UniProtKB/TrEMBL annotation:
SUPFAM superfamilies: Phosphoglycerate mutase-like. Belongs to the histidine acid phosphatase family. Gene3D superfamilies: Phosphoglycerate mutase-like. It comes from Rhizoctonia solani AG-3 Rhs1AP. InterPro entries: His_Pase_clade-2, His_PPase_superfam, Histidine_acid_phosphatase. This is Histidine acid phosphatase. Residues 1-16 form the signal peptide.
Length: 260
């Protein structure tokens, strides 16, 4: 008998970032050297917890859907005391120095060393400072670890995937067209197949789709009716929950110094 396994691989994880590295400024998150680590209780995939299928079934295919790794907040809010949520996050050092592919003479592809900086409105720029909603180094580490656990399970333990990646038929990788999800998938792929386990000269494909045909997320761009339903749902949820949450307005206002 054949067994089609569906495990939830695509790319979006918004786990909380630890505030242990908040600087004296209280508006900037600075990671403490040696303490950019993954919380032990994050609940990442573990090959030790994998429950094998009955012996009369054979695993033929696995679908894995992954949300992006830990990111910075998508906007600045409640950054002043007493909440003091950092407005700026210095937690994106990995992706700052890279080799960009540029077109040279005779249409030849060349590589240029680039150090990218995020600039604030006053012109200040510091290496490693994140943009809103950007994948952090912690997020890169957790998605890398996820890929490594997938390798332990589906390459080393079950033998479903080959030890070395040398064919596009082995696996299909696709992400939504968002930097943090593409970078998360790159990290998962690097954990699943480290550089030493990819055949020299072979380049894995990571696919993205046009927004109108995207189906890894609820696509309100490609489906007007879904957009209408999403808006109606939001309004209905607000109508139902606002009276229940009203009792907390005064407490939250004290923390945010904003009237809710």
């Amino acid at each position: 008998m054949r067994f089609l396994g569906s495990l939830l691989f695509c790319s979006n994880l918004v786990a909380g970032l630890l505030f242990s590295g908040v600087s004296e400024d209280q508006r900037v998150f600075e990671p403490i050297l040696g303490r950019v680590s993954i919380p032990a209780n994050m609940g990442l995939l573990s090959d030790k917890e994998y429950e094998p299928a009955p012996s009369n079934l054979q695993l033929k295919q696995v679908h894995v859907y992954v949300r992006h790794g830990e990111r910075t907040p998508v906007g600045i809010r409640m950054s002043e005391p007493p909440a003091s949520i950092p407005a700026f996050w210095n937690a994106c050092r990995t992706a700052r120095k890279f080799k960009a592919a540029v077109m040279g003479g005779d249409n030849a592809t060349e590589g240029v060393e680039i150090l990218r900086l995020s600039e604030r409105s006053d012109g200040y720029a510091q290496e490693g400072e994140c943009l809103p909603g950007e994948l952090t180094d912690i997020g890169r580490k957790s998605t890398l670890q996820l890929g490594a656990e997938l390798r332990k399970t589906y390459v080393e333990r079950l033998g479903l995937l080959p030890d070395t990646l040398n064919s596009h038929k082995t696996a299909y990788f696709r992400s939504t067209n968002m930097p943090r999800t593409i970078e998360s998938l790159q990290q998962v792929l690097h954990g699943l197949y480290p550089t030493s386990k990819i055949q020299q000269g072979f380049a894995p494909h990571i696919r993205t789709r046009h927004p109108n045909t995207e189906n890894l997320i609820g696509n309100t761009i490609g489906c007007g009716r879904l957009a209408e339903l999403a808006l109606a749902f939001n309004l209905a949820a607000a109508k139902d929950n606002n009276p229940k949450l009203e009792q907390f307005d005064s407490k939250l206002s004290k923390s945010s110094e904003e009237t809710l």
